Structures are given as structure tokens and as C-alpha cells.
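Hey, quick one: can you model this chain's 3D structure?
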Amino acid sequence: MANRSVIEEPMMTALAMAIPGPKGLEGAEAAEAAEGAAGAGLSKPEGIVKQIHEGGFQVKQNPKTGTQESNVTITHPSEPGTKLNLRSEAHPLQPGGPPVKHVNVEVVKPGTKNRPEVVLNKHIDQ
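Sure thing. Here's the predicted structure for all 126 residues.
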């Protein structure tokens, strides 16, 4: 796989497994991510949980809004200030559109003047 940070690697693995085809990682990189996360005899979700647990990540459950089913933040001590936020929610994805149930994947890194910067904001709606 490409050289990614400790936070970006599991995020890309999760995206590769959650988004088939051209929206996710493509070809050999997607297969490598899924195989590495799942491991021998584990389901894909079990493989992701195992990778998070064994990798020293910290998972924090955040308060939910009225449109959210879940809201968690994943961090790692080797990258202070970097966060992977995952929210399962339903709201319009286009102005005036109907509410769409989806997962919002957001990567936040430290920015200039101690202001967090969102470097990825992706909606997974399938």
C-alpha cells in the first residue's frame, strides 16, 4: 500500500471494504486492504476491529445529535491532534433533497495556528 499515516491506513481499509468499485480503492490495493484487515478466518468487520485493537488506537464515543445513530472518534498516540471521525446519520446530501442514511467519514489534522483542518470528508451512502 501507499505510505499512509497510522490513522489513514485503517480509514482507507474501511473505505475500501465499504465502497466497492470506482468510488473506493481500486484493484490490487483494495484487495490488499481487505485481506490485511480480515486476516485468516475473520469477517471483514472483525478484521477491522482487530486492526484497531492491536494497533493501539483509542476509540471514543461522542454525543449524538437527533439525526445520528452513532458518532465515534478514533485517534492514535503517535499522531497527536489527528482524528478519524465516523458518524452514522441521515440528512439530505443535496440541497432540498430527501434525508439519506449514510456514514460520514472525516479526517481532521492539526492546522495552522492550532486550528483543526478537515483533510477528508466522505459520505458513504450505499
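One thing worth noting: The chain has three helices and five strands.
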